[in-house]
Design brief:
- It is a single chain.
- A two-stranded antiparallel ribbon has the order 1-2.
- The radius of gyration is 25 Å and the shape is flat.
- It has three helices and two strands; from the N terminus they run αααββ.
- Helix content is 36%, strand content 4%.
- GO terms for molecular function: asparaginyl-tRNA synthase (glutamine-hydrolyzing) activity; ATP binding; glutaminyl-tRNA synthase (glutamine-hydrolyzing) activity; transferase activity.
- It comes from Corynebacterium resistens (strain DSM 45100 / JCM 12819 / GTC 2026 / SICGH 158).
- Keywords: ATP-binding, Ligase, Nucleotide-binding, Protein biosynthesis.
Length: 104
């Protein structure tokens, strides 16, 4: 399949500059190829005949407007806080203790 509008290395370099990204020559070529492939796939999807297909307002909506059937949300017994923390290396106030990673 021919690309509708080929994405060049220069196009990617321009986008990288706008996004303040420093990319190597290899990365520019690699991303240009990847983006061009994505554009080709989108173009192929646009070619699909959607005549008579009603748009959906939500991914779980059926064509007739009803919602898709999903399993019922049922509450089932689970671990208590004590059971969940039983094997934790450190716990305090019914919470896992983890090393601080932000300088607060």
């Amino acid at each position: 399949m021919l690309s509708m509008s080929e994405i060049s290395r220069d196009d990617v370099a321009h986008l990288a500059k706008l996004a303040r990204l420093k990319l190597s020559e290899d990365e520019l070529e690699h991303f240009a190829t990847q983006i061009d492939g994505i554009v080709d796939h989108v173009a192929a999807i646009r070619e699909v005949d959607t005549e008579g297909v009603e748009p959906l307002s939500h991914p779980t909506q059926n064509v007739d407007g009803t919602e898709s059937v999903m399993r019922e949300d049922v509450v089932i017994p689970s671990l208590t806080a004590e059971q969940a923390l039983d094997q934790a290396p450190a716990a305090e106030d019914q919470r896992f203790m983890v090393p601080q990673i932000l300088g607060e």
